[in-house]
Amino acid sequence: MNLPIADHKWSVKTVVVPAAGMGTRFLPATKTVPKELLPVVDTPGIEVIASEAAALGASKMIIVTAPKKQGVLAHFDPYPELEALLEERGKSAQLEKVRRAPNLIEAIPVTQERPLGLGHAVSLAEAELHDDEDVVAVMLPDDLVLPQGVMETMAKARESVGGSVLCACEVPREEVSNYGVFEVEPVDDPATPGLKKVIGMVEKPAVEDAPSNYVATGRYLLDREIFDALRKITPGAGGELQLTDAIAMLIDKGHPVHIVVHDGARHDLGNPGGYIRACVDFALRDPQYGPGLRRYLTARLSQED
Ligand code: UTP
């Protein structure tokens, strides 16, 4: 499918979802099950991301996976035998759930043969872009940013400031070394509270070297120029090709880069602690499971251990 760019609300046709990481923080579950397929209540994380991409108005989702993680793609295939069985048995709610993922967005597979880093994973998407695409969205499936809609805020900001717009969260100082950290300047734009100009970016700095408490948050709107930078970077933190280093290169060249500071929740589905919180958060809002879970948690928390 190649819809013209004008058919896309925010001129974003493609969302790149890098999902080729090894998921070592979630072993042993991720020995055979890709972390992107672990359910948040009943829906795999990758489908939650796909619905966010579709809500942004994108029509293609490039999923970058490892050779042994092809099941992530299979979640977006139709399953006619199961659909026929559910239809025959009158299970219409379940049928609707099975059909949801394939109908959300066109999922396009790209294989990253070896985990050479997030920057490398993103660079592989270039071959799948159409000529009319000036910007590409990158959404990390480990990161749930709630409430959904931050990508629209970023796209709106991009209409006024151009260049690349990224999402940031403010974290306590002692946590900055886990993230890509921004060096920022204020911007006077009453239309976008939380908008800041980025003048530098560094991956996983020591606490004393971190230029701010604003950290990269798994949502990026990147000018197509990013692919030139990705071709030039060399292995950085952890010996991997880092997206952060390519963004830092764009900034050094004078390319406008801004952040929107997200004022809401963020869950890291890539480790059990963050994943459990995401499940609790989603389940508490679920009409079927929420009321019972709330009663259980209230009673459970009043016990000693
Ligand atoms: P992470 O470092 O959080 O994911 O990468 P990981 O490598 O799976 O984590 P560990 O092993 O538990 O530490 C951030 C995102 O980049 C993707 C990951 O799948 C994740 O979505 N990624 C990372 C790739 O696609 N390829 C890579 O080579 C590295």
List keywords for this structure.
UTP:glucose-1-phosphate uridylyltransferase activity; Nucleotide-diphossugar_trans; nucleotidyltransferase; Spore Coat Polysaccharide Biosynthesis Protein SpsA, Chain A; single chain; transferase; binds uridine 5'-triphosphate; 24% strand; EC 2.7.7.9; 305 residues; nine-stranded mixed beta sheet
Written overview of the protein:
Keywords: Nucleotidyltransferase, Transferase. Belongs to the UDPGP type 2 family. It holds the Pfam family NTP_transferase. It is an enzyme of class 2 (transferase). With 305 residues, the protein is of the alpha/beta class. It is built from ten helices and 13 strands. It has helices at 45-56, 71-74, 80-88, 92-104, 118-123, 150-161, 226-232, 243-252, 272-284, 290-301; strands spanning 14-19, 39-40, 43-44, 60-65, 106-111, 135-139, 143-146, 164-170, 180-186, 195-203, 214-223, 257-261, 265-268. The chain has a nine-stranded mixed beta sheet with strand order 5-4-1-6-11-8-12-10-9. It has a two-stranded antiparallel sheet with strand order 2-3. Strand 9 and strand 10 (195-203) form a beta hairpin. Helix 3 packs antiparallel against helix 4 (92-104) and helix 9 packs across helix 10. The structure holds uridine 5'-triphosphate (UTP). Uridine 5'-triphosphate is lined by residues 18-25, 64, 112, 115-118, 120-121, 140-142, 270.
